[in-house]
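Annex B. Sample input.
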Amino acid sequence: MTRRVPDLPEALVRKHLQEVLESCRETNTAPSVLMLARRLGLTNTTFRRRYPEIAREIADQRAAPTTLRSGPTEHDRLVARNAKLRRRNRELNTQLALAAAQIQHLALRVAKMQDALEIQARVSPIADRRQLGRQRRRL
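Annex B, continued. Sample output.
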């Protein structure tokens, strides 16, 4: 049992074809019938059967040598930006790990110093001779 999908207006198919072609130009990729068929919700075979002229146009587009646009494409810029962001993220993660290690080190040093301070506080101070003399005179 096959599912009958109504034919789409050719104007709509051509509109989607222009969008696919523009997208392919921006990313420097070759258009395909499958790409357009999926966009329209059709199988490759059904698309080729219903729109043979458009399928031929796409095949001709694929066969024609592509003219590379001067300068980087939008896709190239996005790939480069993504790579730059990944590098920066790696650097920041490294710095974060280093900062966490420094904080741990400082916390351990503070704990040791606090222990030493508590030990020092338990020792009773020896009075200075001058202070002892003053205290005796008062009595």
